[in-house]
Write a structure and sequence with these properties.
The protein is built from 23 helices and 16 strands. The protein is α/β, with parallel strands linked by helices. The radius of gyration is 30 Å and the shape is elongated. It has a five-stranded parallel sheet, covered by helices on one side. A three-stranded antiparallel sheet has the order 14-16-15. A two-stranded antiparallel sheet has the order 2-3.
Length: 487
């Protein structure tokens, strides 16, 4: 007999159903997955040897969990994926507000219904996807919201006095009985509301307007918090922290490759963008390096975190910048250019908190500096390092390129160049072509011109050339010439 075809308590007993708490469900299903060598948490990259093992240990220990980390570290995603470790369906007493188990009822409604109908008590089935409840902790949250309160309308309709527990309206937590309940940004919850969680976490009872209900609530609590919240906006009170079994520290990706995997997975691109816009791997690396630079920048408040959403939004903006240029030139396809990175500045601005010095610099200026810093950091990965000081008679790999700018005319790259014009313009600098042939001989043809731009931008960052912002693009020239022009 199919499990969900069981409709009465008698049929449920005959099927051999055994009650399990939610923590026992999570534990037993996790053990089964580990025995089958299957992945427990999917789509969460960079946590395989750090956060996920700690989370698995907490589940095996049947702990309530606090995920502590900066913004954009997949804390809520981890909590939501815990539903995959629940049984597919569980039975509940039909009509119960708090998902009473037919073999272990806790509400007055369920107990009275079972006493009246016994084996004929109707039951229904709850899918694991419906066993997740989430609440964002905000200062306006009340005890009535999360625990419950007396409902005067119910009292009037049922003609009951306020002394009767049937007038109680249950809050979010009792209604999430036998579910995973997540409270996001726990420190933002007022201290008096945190106190209301004590008994639920430890003793399993709740108090509503003087009613002390010995509810053995069956809950898996997951809390999320930002470390800075302990001092900036609020705090997790010590007795509550003491009642949370495991506190797990999350972190940002520790390599560009992991960060790139996350961005490619999460970025929401239109089919037209994905099919018609080529993105060099170097461009993807630069997007991620910008995030790494932001987390080290003296202008950015690193304590508030630089979310992984920065790279995702920046990548989406980069693709849209290339698409807009493609539409303007009426071309069918294009390739991302380094000059397109100016289009990601709005995405960066919205994802970083600036310190006082950063505010003085200006958000747009800080964002542009982060792009330039990313170029400078990645440049030695592909080309010989540019020394800050060299002997007067020493030669460097970049002498011919610098000489070309000293002897040549100004070089400009307009933003609205067609693909063909952009290629022709960059190919005009022969020493640049020679440099790539020597140090990057195996480059894909589609990557060559992005790398040429990359070299020019890096030369500017190393003070070997200067870059001039034009109304619609950039110009590059010898630094000495720029100095003369500025006199």
């Amino acid at each position: 007999m199919k499990q969900t075809a069981i409709k009465t308590l008698g049929e449920l007993k005959a099927s051999g159903y055994i009650y399990k708490s939610i923590k026992e469900e999570l534990r037993s299903n996790l053990i089964n997955l580990k025995k089958e060598q299957k992945e427990t948490f999917t789509g969460v990259h960079g946590y395989e040897k750090t956060v996920i093992p700690q989370l698995e240990r907490a589940i095996l220990s049947k702990h309530n969990i606090n995920l502590l980390g900066l913004r954009g570290q997949a804390k809520t995603r981890l909590a939501r994926q815990m539903t995959n470790l629940l049984d597919e369906y569980i039975p509940v007493v039909s009509g119960s507000e708090i998902n009473d188990d037919p073999l272990k009822p806790i509400s007055r409604f369920a107990k009275e219904l079972i006493a009246e109908k016994d084996d004929h008590t109707p039951i229904s089935w709850l899918h694991r996807s419906e066993r997740f409840a989430e609440k964002l902790a905000t200062p306006d949250v009340t005890v009535a919201d999360i625990i419950g309160d007396i409902d005067p309308i119910k009292a009037a309709n049922l003609k009951l006095s306020y002394a009767d527990d049937r007038v109680i309206h249950y809050g979010m937590i009792p209604r999430a009985n036998r579910c995973i309940f997540v409270i996001n940004e726990l420190p933002d919850l007022q201290a008096r509301i945190q106190v209301a969680l004590f008994n639920i976490l430890q003793e399993g009872d709740i108090q509503i307007r003087g009613f002390k209900l010995r509810f053995d609530l069956d809950m898996q609590f997951v809390f999320t918090a930002n470390p800075e919240d302990y001092t900036n906006r609020g705090s997790i009170i010590t007795p509550l922290k003491d009642r949370i079994g495991s506190q797990i520290l999350t972190h940002y990706p520790d390599s560009i490759q992991i960060a790139k995997t996350i961005t490619q997975q999460e970025a929401k691109l239109e089919k037209n963008q994905a099919d018609n816009i080529y993105v060099p791997e170097l461009a993807k690396d630069l997007i991620e390096q910008i995030g790494f630079e932001a987390r080290e920048s003296e202008f950015v408040d690193v304590k508030s975190g630089v979310s992984a959403r920065l790279s995702i939004s920046a990548y989406e903006n980069l693709m849209s910048t290339a698409e807009l240029r493609m539409l303007a030139s009426e071309e069918q396809n294009t390739s991302v250019r380094l000059s397109d990175f100016i289009g990601i500045i709005p995405a960066i601005n919205g994802k970083i908190e600036l310190v006082y010095e950063g505010e003085q610099e200006g958000a747009a200026s800080v964002a542009e500096n982060l792009i330039n810093d990313a170029v400078k950091t990645l440049f030695p990965t592909y080309f010989p390092a540019i020394e800050k000081l060299v002997r007067k008679d020493a030669t460097t790999p970049y002498d011919e390129l610098i000489k070309w700018f000293i002897e040549g005319t100004d070089f400009e790259l307009a933003n609205d160049l067609t693909n063909k014009e952009h290629i022709q313009q960059l190919d005009y600098i022969q020493p640049l072509t020679d440099l790539l042939i020597k140090y990057q001989p195996d480059l894909d043809q589609k990557d060559i011109h992005f790398f040429k731009e990359f070299v020019l931008w890096a030369m500017v960052e190393y003070k070997k050339l200067s870059k001039v912002e034009l109304s619609e693009g950039y110009g590059f020239k010898d630094t000495f010439e720029s100095f003369i022009d500025g006199i």
